[in-house]
């Protein structure tokens, strides 16, 4: 009697699924040496404000078609200290500059001035932050407000400083103000404003680095949320995305892998963190993020990617005798939450703890290379 040789096939444990996260997708070079602002218009074009190479007082506004980042047009603006940058739905560029006197200038796509408000707060320089509400034609400024006590006919002392936030229209006229007095009557108390951003519902988000808080205010100045953060909060920049989401750059630690960009939902709850040196960005949609580092004219595109469902092995399952030198492996196909195409990597080996890469496929089946008879194999 002739003995029949066989291959014993067993299914190894599946690999652990990764979490939903922003994945780097591509990098692009743009005009300018230092990116100072980004935003998009209603058509999805990305606008970039960047310092003109070799100049300390000139910036370039450039527009790019996404996703290929094909250049559309560019023009130069003479600003020294850009505080806020936004692009309206029709492509009009809004730029708030605090160099010299505080000025809000609006440009069309040729660089021609559409409107300009100059010397908005005459002689004042000490601003905490600024944000533009491009959908409603207003902008916000935050600055210190001193509470004083008169000590003589010509003398006084500062008791403490409050934070004042004021809203202006695009003509530079003040519309309203509200104060952030802090939880105590001490300087550097809580509710001290710094950088700000306006979300898609016209709510104003204010970062409080003194007490590590994200504060939300309605357009009327009523406080809507007070979110305490569980880590040191020294934010560098902040911008908003779809569905009232909020991006904040904050270096909470040092070294590779340290998260520095955080995404919060409309309620101020942290959703995701990204390890990146980028400090300026724009959310193209709910999945695509463009971000730039503080130096160099390079923009990186990230995509929010949720893992597909885990494939379920169909055959062979458990231990199976295989009378052919090749094994046919099959599984139930995965599905991706965003409808993306799914590819599979197959691993085969003689130890469940040490599997070798066998190949990739977009199908729900895979034929192995010839295997050795009389040997137990595992696959994943």
Q: How would you describe what is shown here?
A:
The protein is mainly beta. It contains no helices and 32 strands. It has a five-stranded mixed beta sheet, with no helix packed on it. A four-stranded antiparallel beta sheet has the order 2-25-24-23, with no helix packed on it. Strand 24 and strand 25 form a beta hairpin. It starts with 6 loop residues before the first strand and ends with a strand. The N terminus is likely disordered.
TL;DR?
This protein is mainly β and 380 residues long. It is 0% helix and 51% strand.
Could you list the spans in which at least 5 consecutive residues all have pLDDT below 50? Answer: 1-6
Strand proportion: over 45%
Straight-line distance between termini: 36 Å
The helix/strand class is: mainly beta
What topology emerges from the helices and strands here?
Elements: E1 7-11, E2 21-29, E3 35-40, E4 46-51, E5 59-65, E6 70-77, E7 82-87, E8 93-97, E9 103-107, E10 113-117, E11 129-133, E12 138-152, E13 155-169, E14 174-180, E15 196-198, E16 204-208, E17 213-217, E18 223-228, E19 237-240, E20 246-249, E21 261-264, E22 270-274, E23 280-283, E24 288-292, E25 298-305, E26 312-315, E27 319-322, E28 328-332, E29 344-351, E30 354-361, E31 365-367, E32 376-379
Parallel strand pairs: 1-32
Antiparallel strand pairs: 1-27, 2-25, 3-4, 4-5, 5-6, 7-8, 8-9, 9-10, 11-12, 12-13, 13-14, 15-16, 16-17, 17-18, 19-20, 20-21, 21-22, 23-24, 24-25, 26-28, 28-31, 29-30, 29-32
